[in-house]
Specification:
Keywords: Acyltransferase, Transferase, Tricarboxylic acid cycle. The chain has helices spanning about 5-10, 45-55, 55-65, 70-85, 90-95, 105-115, 130-155, 170-180, 190-200, 210-220, 225-235, 245-255, 260-270, 290-305, 310-325, 330, 340-350, 355-375; strands at about 30-35, 40, 45, 125, 130. With about 400 residues, the chain is mainly alpha-helical. It binds acetyl coenzyme *A.
Length: about 400
């Protein structure tokens, strides 16, 4: 058998895998994906069953603990989520330091990092596995990220903060803190709560995607849970990852307001020189369909008809979807609508402002980030992440004094 480490030491052999398309960086028992068959399972349970029967909070518990909770365990988790919802008053001053209209994603990352300044115990997961104190920290983070998200929005609008209401469940409480329910009752209608709950649940984990890998890379240096998740928010922000739900809506708006037809948009997306991609289409792993997108498409149809939404951007979305699904370019490359395509549409339909789309993705992904961080810390084989490179620059050049440089 070939000893790879010895071979590498002797020859400098390195595998080059840009974007880590075929490199496994860890073992994991959290989320199972079969991209060819369009299968997604959390702890073995099909995403379709969870979407049908579970809630975001129960699914969060499942991801972190590795099994479905007993009733009293779920009750305790809900009690923890309520108890941890308020932010320390010092946070208000921190928020006030941001300019009004600062992007909520920037505030979210900063504030999650700030949570590490109020430590109970920082690195609570040990090789012996997570303990009760870690689970309490997990509940604290899942609860507080929702309050931070809502406050980020209020700050970005120059509006006063609204305290959490302990009587409200997770999603309704978030909508209450964002929109102040007494004034905007429609925001807490059962259809809206249900749709948002489903979006969060479907985003709760997705194995080693860009932001989750960030959690593991940062966590591998034994940085604390909050610092690791704050870094993940940065990774999520980009338009090729979580920011795609914003990019979808911006694209639909550009097409609609620019008088571009769906056919023209498809033509542009197929031209590599145009620099234009159909946002919300394609996926690194799913090569037939994204099972989350199928569930969300049904939800989008339901929500739009229940709320009687009539929106020209949503018509553009339907036309693009219809045309791309039969166009040979998209069919050959296996480019199908992904979860961000429909989540953007639903969030727009239920009145979530654009600058909160990716923030909501982050709230949803938090249980996955936490579960992955804990799994990594409990893995005795885990090592600090330190990829190699294939160097293509000059191997040696002489230093030239500044007056001699040409
Ligand atoms: N529109 C047009 N062409 C596309 C698109 C698209 N959305 N996505 C991929 N392609 C083309 C590429 O140009 C490439 O064509 P080529 O083979 O002729 O060169 C081929 O399909 C393969 O694309 P890659 O970029 O190599 O695929 P990769 O796996 O690296 O990227 C990604 C996946 C980032 C999701 C890509 O499909 C994309 O940019 N999609 C739009 C952004 C988006 O929706 N991101 C959300 C992803 S899901 C999530 O984060 C929750």
């Amino acid at each position: 058998a070939v000893d790879i480490s010895q071979l590498r030491a002797k020859t400098g052999l390195i595998t080059l895998d840009p974007g880590f398309g075929n490199t496994g960086a860890c073992t994991s028992a959290i989320t199972f994906i079969d991209g060819e068959k369009g299968i997604l399972r959390y702890r073995g349970i099909p995403i379709e069953q969870l979407a049908e029967n579970s809630s975001f909070t129960e699914t969060a518990w499942l991801l972190i603990h590795g099994r479905l909770p007993q009733r009293q365990e779920l009750d305790l988790f809900r009690e923890q989520l309520n108890r941890h919802a308020p932010l320390h008053e010092a946070f208000k001053h921190h928020f006030e330091g941001f300019l009004v209209d600062a992007p909520p994603m920037a505030m979210l990352s900063a504030m999650i990092n700030t949570l590490s300044c109020f430590p109970r115990r920082w690195n609570t997961a040990t090789p012996a596995g997570p303990d009760e104190e870690f689970y309490e920290e997990a509940a604290r983070l899942i609860s507080k990220v929702r309050t931070i998200a809502a406050y980020s929005y209020r700050r970005s609008m120059g509006l006063p903060f609204i305290y959490p209401d302990p009587k409200l469940p997770y999603v309704a409480n978030f909508l209450h803190m964002m929109f102040s329910m007494p004034y905007e009752q429609h925001m807490a209608s059962p259809e809206v709560v249900e749709a948002l709950n489903l979006i969060l649940l479907l985003h709760a984990d997705h194995e080693q995607n860009c932001s989750t890998s960030t959690v593991r890379v940062v966590g591998s240096s034994q940085a604390n849970l909050f610092a690791s998740c704050a870094a993940a928010v940065g990774a999520l922000w980009g338009p090729l990852h979580g920011g795609a739900n914003v990019a979808v809506l911006e694209m639909l708006s550009k097409i609609h307001h620019g008088g571009i037809s769906a056919d023209q948009a498809i033509k542009l997306a197929k031209d590599p020189k145009s620099g234009f991609r159909l946002m919300g289409f394609g996926h690194r792993v799913y090569k037939n369909f994204d099972p989350r997108a199928i569930i969300l498409k049904r939800s989008a149809d339901r929500v739009l008809s229940q709320l009687g939404v009539n929106d020209p951007l949503l018509d553009v979305a339907r036309q693009l979807e219809e045309k791309a699904l039969t166009d040979p370019y998209f069919v050959e490359r296996k480019l199908y609508p992904n979860v961000d395509f429909y989540s953007g549409i639903i969030m727009r339909a239920i009145g979530i402002p654009l600058n909160m789309f990716t923030v909501i993705f982050a709230i949803g992904r938090m249980p996955g980030w936490i579960a992955q961080w804990a799994e990594q810390h409990a893995d005795p084989k885990a090592r600090i992440a330190r990829p190699r490179q294939v160097y293509i620059g000059n191997t040696i050049s002489d230093y030239v004094p500044i007056d001699d440089r040409r």
